[in-house]
Amino acid sequence: MASSVKDRIQLTPTRSCSSALPEGPWEFDAMPGYGPGSSQADPAPAHTPTNGTSRPNQLPEAYRQMEEAELHERIRSAKEALGERLVILGHFYQRDEVVQHADFVGDSFQLAQAALTKPDAQSIVFCGVHFMAETADILSSEDQQVILPNLAAGCSMADMADEDSVEEAWEEIAEFYGFDPENPEPDAEGKLPVLPVTYMNSSAALKAFCGRLGGIVCTSSNAATVLEWAFERAHRVLFFPDQHLGRNTAKAMGIALENMPMWNPRLPWGGNTADDLKQAQVLLWHGFCSVHKRFTVDQIDQAREQFPGCRVIVHPECPMPVVDAADASGSTDAIRKFVEASSPGDVIAVGTEINMVNRLAADYPDREIFCLDPVICPCSTMYRIHPGYLAWVLDSLVAGQVENRISVPEGTAVEARVALDRMLAAKPR
Ligand code: 13P
Ligand code: SF4
Fold first, then answer.
1. Which of the chain's ends, N or C, has fewer CB atoms near its CB within 10 Å?
2. In this predicted structure, what is the pLDDT of residue 152?
3. Quick one: 292-371 is in which CATH superfamily?
4. Which residues define the annotated binding site for iminosuccinate?
5. Mapping DSSP to helix (H, G, I), strand (E, B) and coil, where does residue 139 land?
């Protein structure tokens, strides 16, 4: 007898950091946190998503019980029925069972571009996380609709910078540096005192905050270009939510560590002294990715010991000592290209999410490709997109019903678009 999808979910063939991972992701949709996986200790989102929906969303029971083969068959026939009216976008971290149905797979920057290049598709089904779907909604045209198959697919890092905390920090920063927080003016040199830069992994509200205050959005692929853009216009940058991407990028530009203090939103002046703030060039928000913070220099040392001559590439959301110890760092697409450019027989240790690493290993069987972290974990929010949700939203579309639409309010979208257009113009190197 064929097994159900639930029985057959195989995230981690041998080891896993949580025995709950083989469960269907719907088991965790109603939980207050993000469920099993590397971010299991992360708090639940502090805010309601910008589209006004809140968790949990319900996957109909029939789809939970469905056989894997039927789910895939339903996805395929819905795609066929919808034809050019549908485009499915997928992030590299999605599981293979989902990636196989995507029309385009890419990193965050590429997926944002892809949302612009399919104007004929009435529906963009985004197999990724909430902030990516919000971005697609902002960039796509008014008559297109963006659908996130599981509304509980958030990003724990994005939730580390909520709008209120950033607004409060901005007021304190404005008071310290002596500018109007609502309307910062350039000085005699033509530069702003502080310019906000938000990582793509943030809510639409924070992208709008950057748009209206002269700021910009970056992704891991164009962060260096964006910081250069920012320093042409400002004396310093407030970078949120990912301290590691901010630190790694600024360090590579030659900015000294003492000029990039951390801003802890729970402490007055972010936990800094007046001297810290006077010499600051980059104020780094106290945020991080729970998946990438697992990678360590010890793991790199062990990989090099075990496989002399192996090369190590990590995502720039990893802590600075890890990026420094690696041979290279880059966005998910940069990691893919690094592997693509390698030769048969090469050994490559990768510091990023496991679904992507496993796929690279399967695509290049003539090379030894493995994840640096021996206790393998997926991104517990990307993992929430499962073929069951995809089949459900596609079947619904065929029936003329739109489930799980992500719709950023117009005022927010207009301001966020300003910051996103600046991002799209800042090309990855
Ligand atoms: P990329 O932009 O490199 O795809 O990264 C997105 C992300 O969330 C990594 O954790
Ligand atoms: Fe967010 Fe980290 Fe998952 Fe990327 S890997 S979506 S930053 S939690």
1. N
2. 85
3. NadA-like (3.40.50.10800)
4. 91, 108, 199-201, 220, 315-317, 332
5. helix
Give the residue extent of every domain in the chain: 24-155+381-398, 159-289+414-425, 292-371
What CATH number labels 24-155+381-398? 3.40.50.10800
Whole-prediction pTM value?
A: 0.91
- The finding on whether 380 has its CB within 6 A of some atom of ligand 1 is no
Answer yes or no: is pLDDT of 59 > 60: yes
Spatial separation of the C-alpha atoms in residues 153 and 45, rounded to whole Å: 11
* Nearest ligand for residue 290 CA: 2
Binding residues: 91, 108, 155, 199-201, 220, 289, 315-317, 332, 379
Segment holding 393, helix H or strand E: helix 387-398
Residue 382 near ligand 2, beta carbon < 6 Å: yes
Whether the CB of 242 sits within 6 Å of ligand 1: no
SS (H, E, C) 308-363: CCCEEEECCCCCHHHHHHCCEECCHHHHHHHHHCCCCCCEEEEECCHHHHHHHHHH
User: What single-letter amino acid sits at 80?
Assistant: E
Q: How many angstroms does the Cα of residue 156 sit away from the middle of ligand 2?
A: 7
Task: Note the ligand closest to the C-alpha atom of 153.
Answer: 2
Q: Is the separation of the CB atoms in 360 and 367 below 8 Å?
A: no
Ligand 1: which residue has its CA nearest to atom 8? Answer: 201
pLDDT of residue 46 exceeding 80, the answer is no
